Amino acid sequence: MLASAFWQHPLVETAGYFSVVVLCLVVSMVLFEVVTKYKNWEEIRKGNVAVALATGGKILGVCNVFRYSIERHTSLIEMLGWGLYGFSLLIFAYFLFEFLTPLIKVDEEIAKDNRSVGFISCTISVGLSFVIGASIS
Known about the structure:
Layout: H1 2-8, H2 10-35, H3 40-45, H4 49-72, H5 76-100, H6 106-111, H7 115-135
Helix pairs in contact: 2-4, 2-5, 4-5, 4-7, 5-7
């Protein structure tokens, strides 16, 4: 009974959700590093604003999806499952963006610091995260 009360304390619960989401964010950034043709953090270190915009949009998008998942689910497992599902949809949206813009090689333009493409990539990630989050049930 006492152990159960400990895990249900708001401070402990918040720390648990925070820890899990940070871990998921790290994993998602590694996956995005794998699917992009450029090295995100190396380009950001060099001052590539387009990569920073695209990466920032991905971070905000992933965090927003998990925010909705935390808000709507009472168990850590449910929150994690729906959050990961939402993240999978964001990855799909990334590939869809590349596919639907055949005249623009999104990864190449972002790697060349085309800030317009980086901004659109950011906006797509953030915008779709709201749609994904709202649909999480």
